[in-house]
Structures are given as structure tokens and as C-alpha cells.
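Quick note —
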Amino acid sequence: MPGMGAVATTFMAGVIAARRGIAKPIGSLTQMGTVRIGKRSDNNSPKIQDYIPIANMKDIAFGGWDIFPDNAYEAALRAGVLEKSLLSELKEELSAIKPMKAVFEQAYVKRLNGPNVKTGTSKMDLALQLMEDIKQFKATNNCERLVAVWCGSTEVYREAGEVHQTLALFEKGLELSADAISPSQIYAYACLKMGVPYANGAPNLSSDTPALMELAKKQGLPLTGKDFKTGQTLIKTILAPGFKARLLGLEGWYSTNILGNRDGEVLDDPESFKSKEVTKLGVIDTILQPDLYPDLYSNISHVVRINYYPPRGDNKEGWDNIDIKGWLGYPMQIKVNFLCRDSILAAPLVLDLALFMDFAHRAGMSGVQEWLSFYWKSPMVPKEGMHPEHDLFIQLMKLKNTLRHTMGDDLVTHLGDEHYD
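Predicted structure written out below.
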């Protein structure tokens, strides 16, 4: 995991606690979810972890990089997500997980700085150092396979440039330390070169460039991203499909967040917020399809704000005001106040993505894994110009149908008596 802050340490502590039977892995599809096989009357709905050959949670070894040298126990204490009493029970295992020196560039995350960083003669040199870290971690922990999930901070907003268009140009850019190549792209490159499937948990321009998608294809590796779908956007992908299903119009959706953790501090920088804003704003239009329903959705006022408020810590508060219209255009309003815990919602996603990406790799899947769109604010698509699927319920159907397909079972389409009884 690049980034061993609140999300990563909450994930690690949670897995360790679940392995010991101290707590339940609530929110994890791989651990608690089921999948129906065959007709409803068959009553055959095994747990996903019993249906597909995913890795056992007990067999996960943890590692990562961070700009701060704190071990996972110290970092978890500092993050303030989990109770000290729980962390004290896990102290021995968490204290043994120490971050490797990180690749970091101040220009890409302006509000953070830390001492535990690599130095090198070029960005290619830094990438090679990461590759050596990966090699050493695999050997030290006796791992058979590896998966990478970005859990670091949001970088400033950037669009793909010439250096991102082909693998050859990207590698030349690494040698020349091109300004347009960010730390997250260096991590993605190093992981893919080492045969490690890669999931991008932030809105950064990272593996979603032609150059790195070319590398993934060349290496036969799965890619997925981007930006964990946790709080406010999760609510949008639940509510917006309902409005569209009932053909209720939408006039405006005003969203604001207050957040006090390290992510909130980073997003207080306008350039980093721009990265997050782009992933948040794209959801509603894609779900509601204003081109198909102009009378209902052609002129939506969609506003998103994030405010850094230190007293909140990791307990993010999201406020939504939704102006809808019904029969004959009569206006109505919905108010949502979601007091969520950011890392508590993100941690099970890290677990699921690690296990599903490992499964995808072993199943011979490569390139963009659209069936994992369920987990992302801004799902990657395999071709430029394609629109991602944002409807949470369609995403879940695609995910479970993909699992059925890999196991040689019939897809559930609700067509035909064989499934609809």
C-alpha cells in the first residue's frame, strides 16, 4: 500500500481483529456477501468466499510506504479512527509493520511533508528503488503473490499529457524526470513492472493513462480504480438510481463535507480538491442520462464542497440538499445528513479489492476490470470515450455475474422461467 495513514492502518487493524475473532469484517463483500446460484427456488446462495477461490484473509501480509516513519500501531493511534483499547490488543502485530521510504514530491501534495522519503538521480531511479522494495518485501514475508492498493493522499489535479501516451514515452519521461510524472504514477509503474495488479484508491491521474494501461496489457495484469466510493458519493449512487427509476426530476444537488483528518488537510488545497471534485461531479450525470431524459435532468445545478475542519478528525459529515420535482413539475426536497467515518467505510473496500484483484489475476483477467466499478467514485473504462457505469445496483449485478461467469454458472438476468420462479 502506498500510503500507510488512516485508511491503510484501519484496514490492517480490522483484518487482524477479524482474524482473531475480536470483531466482524462488516462492509466486506468478500467476507460477508453472498451470491445466488441458479433459480431462486433452489435456495442456493453461498458466501462469496466459499464460492470462488479467493485468498484467505488469514494469509495476508501487510506492507507499504509512507512519508512518515511511524509503524502501523503509531500511525493508527495518530489517525484516531479506532479506539485505543482495540489498538492495544493489536499492538504487537501492528508495531511490526514499518513503512518503507516513500516516493514523494511536494508539488503534488502541497499540504504534507515528511522525512521518510527516497532520494534518487531520476524518477526512473526512484521507480527502480520501489521495485527493489517490492522484491525484498515478497522474499521477507514469504509471499506467493502480491497486490497493490493505493491508500495515499490525493494529488493535485493533472490531465494526461504527451509523456503519458505510450509506454516508451513514459519510460523516457522517467529517465528525464519529467515534471508531468507524479509519485502515484511512479508507484503504478513499479508495481506493474514487478507483475503486481494495481488498484488506485485516490482520484489521482495514475494508472488510468494509455502508457500504464499499455504496460498492464503487456504484463497481463488487471487494473482498477479510481477513488474509493465511501461517503457522500456512495449515497448519491444509491439515491440517484431511485430518482431515475421513478422518473422524478432533479433541479439541483448541493453537497458539502466537513472533514478533519489528513485527507481533509490535503483537500484544503484547491488543486488537490480539483482532483476530488472531478470524480464527485461525474456521478449524477452518468446515472441520470440527461441526453435521454432532457425534461427531467438537462439543467441540474450540482455543487460539491469540502471544508477542512480539524475537530471532526476522521468522522466526516456530509450534508446534501436535493431539489427534486414530481407530477406536473411540483417541487419537493430531500435533506441528507450523513455522519460517517471515512476510514471505516474505506477499509473493507481495500480488503475486497486486494482479494478480488488477486483472484482476477489468477483467473487470467487483464486490463481494466469494469466489474469492480462497484468500489469506485470514478470507475476506469477500457477505452477512451466510454462512459463508466455509476448505478450501484447495476454495478453489483455486474460484479456477481462476473463471479458466476468465472465459475461456469448461468448469469442471473431475470429472463426465462428457469431463473424467474
